[in-house]
Specification:
Blueprint lengths: L4 E4 L8 H17 L5 E6 L4 E6 L2 H20 L17 H4 L10 H14 L6
Parallel strand pairs: 1-2
Antiparallel strand pairs: 2-3
Helix pairs in contact: 1-2
């Protein structure tokens, strides 16, 4: 029986975002393998503890609502603006999201000029 485990570097969040992500993985497993996945675990590296998660009706509903919202965003063709938050610094998608590029009154060309200047100053310039 599949039992999804998601490894997180930090500690549990105040909201259910980690649990929703894990439940989404379980829903994918259910669809692919034609089984029911009742639970999984989140392992938090900072605490070195495992947190068991039951995929109950409420969590499944929240996960499905998030998936519906994602499909609506994709269908609209409009990318929501990224908001820079403290958690962004620990995100594995920071290089793709680029929330700094969306600062108010900052043009894309100004962002690119600054990013190139930072890379050159850090010795990461291209040859």
């Amino acid at each position: 029986m599949p039992f999804p485990v998601d490894y997180k570097r930090g500690k549990p969040k105040l909201d259910r975002c980690d649990e929703i992500q894990l439940c989404a993985q379980a829903l994918c497993l259910e669809e692919m393998l034609k089984v029911i996945v009742l639970s999984g675990s989140l392992f938090y590296g900072k605490l070195q503890r495992r947190h068991d998660v039951a995929f109950d009706a409420v969590l499944r509903g929240q996960t499905e609502a998030a998936a519906v919202r994602l499909h609506e965003l994709i269908a609209s063709g409009i990318t929501p603006k990224a908001r820079k938050e403290p958690k962004c610094e620990r995100c594995s998608l920071l290089a793709q999201c680029l929330p700094e590029a969306m600062k108010p009154r900052k043009s894309a060309s100004a962002y690119l000029r600054g990013a190139v200047a930072e890379n050159l100053a850090a010795g990461k310039g291209g040859d």
